[in-house]
Write a structure and sequence with these properties.
alpha/beta; nine-stranded mixed β-sheet; binds S-adenosylmethionine; binds iron/sulfur cluster
């Protein structure tokens, strides 16, 4: 995460974040770290275990860690659960059901809670959709990534475009809410090609789309090819043009961006993802999961051990896999709220930011950025414009300086 420089010369009365109201959203994230194959662009905490895994033993550990987090963040009302990965659609529906039941047992699970599962669109995984619905999943997020077989092959995917579209059609039958992911600014992708692909994607879209610009992540096979000059992806000017085209097409189709990479029909935004960007609390269960839990006015940042087997052993001996647990200062919590909140088109609440961090942003600096067309102020709210979101990191540095 980008570290924002904040003027430490200001004597800060570090106003701690207030204790969360009982009715503030609270989410549970469950990380399933296994995949059929490792995609060459991906640096998520995901692992291939050719010999298989002991799913029942892992489930026992997840349930145990859940009890630990319920004690750390007691009496919260869970508004969303998100099964992310890795590939959670490799889990048996019974495993998913047991985890949802445990969340409902240890916290109050709202009757209309959003319960999302990330799925890869192979036909084998689509065969589980009915079981996931019975387990309680009401929103599916499919990793389609591209709509032509040559691109899917180049991305190292285990499914064809036809398989992905069939999985999408099936998902729409089983789940009230369906999203899918595409990656753009891929190798050799022109504006013309992306216009055609995104137009087709919008024809298939349900209520939500995640459109990610390809990031070359350090340590991945794509990074090695990029360094060797054999991965020819659009340069930053071309990628910016693709981003602006994305905004234009999605807006025209009624799925405007509500976050840098996320588009939804109004009212169909992912409640779970909004909770992160709005700075609310969540418990993250499983290997390499992150949590934010506020207690006694202080926000704690926790994360668990990344290696699945090491996490499993730790839970079996200690009841949890927590590897780091730090209190965030008011300044750090404010930095985080600024970083996350400006990704949203609704932006941030300046009064809340000042309450968290103990100081207000510089009004003259905001005015200067507004004159450049990079931010918009509306009462106590501040948002980045689409142009501003293109240079978000430097914008945040400028605001926080
Ligand atoms: C954690 S992945 C899990 C989803 C699921 N395993 C799959 O691959 O469909 C979530 C999404 O992140 C996106 N993603 C992962 N690595 C990326 C990268 N290097 N650049 C852009 N998007 C990426 C993909 O669109 C992917 O669907
Ligand atoms: S993109 Fe998805 S399937 Fe591919 S390695 Fe990453 S998490 Fe696994």
């Amino acid at each position: 995460m980008t570290k924002i420089e904040i003027d430490h010369s200001l004597a800060l009365a570090v106003a701690r974040a207030p204790s969360p109201a009982r009715d503030e959203p609270f989410g549970v994230y469950v990380h399933w770290p296994f995949c059929r194959a490792k995609c060459p662009y991906c640096d998520f905490n995901s692992h291939v275990r050719h010999g298989g895994i002991d799913e029942a033993r892992f489930l026992t550990a997840y349930l145990e860690e859940l009890v630990h987090f319920a004690a750390l963040a007691p009496a919260r009302k869970v508004t969303s659960i998100f099964f992310g990965g890795g590939t959670p659609s490799l889990m048996r529906p019974n495993t998913v059901a047991a985890m949802i039941d445990a969340v409902a047992l240890h916290w109050a699970l709202e009757s209309d809670a959003e319960i999302t599962l990330e799925a890869n669109p192979t036909s084998a995984e689509a065969a589980n959709f009915a079981g996931y619905r019975t387990a309680g999943i009401n929103r599916l997020s499919l990793g389609v990534q591209a709509l032509d077989d040559a691109s899917l092959k180049a991305l190292g995917r285990q499914h064809t475009a036809a398989e992905a579209l069939a999985a999408l059609a099936l998902a729409k039958r089983y789940f009230g809410r369906v999203s899918f992911d595409l990656i753009y600014a891929r190798e050799g992708q022109t504006e013309f090609a992306w216009r055609e692909e995104l137009t087709r994607a919008l024809d298939h879209a349900a209520d939500h789309l995640s459109l990610y610009q390809l990031t070359v992540e350090e340590g991945t096979p794509f990074a090695a090819r990029h360094a060797a000059g054999t991965l020819r992806i659009p340069d930053s000017a071309d990628a910016h043009a693709l981003y602006l085209l994305t905004q234009e097409l999605c807006e025209a189709a009624g799925l405007p961006a509500y976050e840098v990479s996320n588009h939804a029909r109004p009212g169909s935004e992912s409640r779970h993802n909004l909770l992160y960007w709005r700075g609310h609390d969540y418990a993250g269960i499983g290997p390499g999961a992150h949590s934010r839990v506020t207690a006694n006015g202080t926000k704690r940042a926790l994360s668990t051990t990344k290696s699945p087997e090491a996490w499993l052993a730790q839970v079996e001996t200690s009841g949890h896999g927590i590897e780091s647990d730090e209190d965030l200062s008011g300044e750090e919590a404010a930095e985080e709220y600024l970083l996350m909140g400006l990704r949203l088109s609704e932006g941030i609440d300046l009064a809340r930011l000042a309450a968290i961090g103990g100081r207000a942003l510089d009004a003259a600096r905001i005015d200067a950025l507004a004159r450049e067309g990079l931010v918009e102020r509306n009462g106590t709210r501040l948002a980045a414009t689409p142009q501003g979101r293109l240079v978000l990191n430097s914008l945040i540095l400028e605001l926080a300086a």
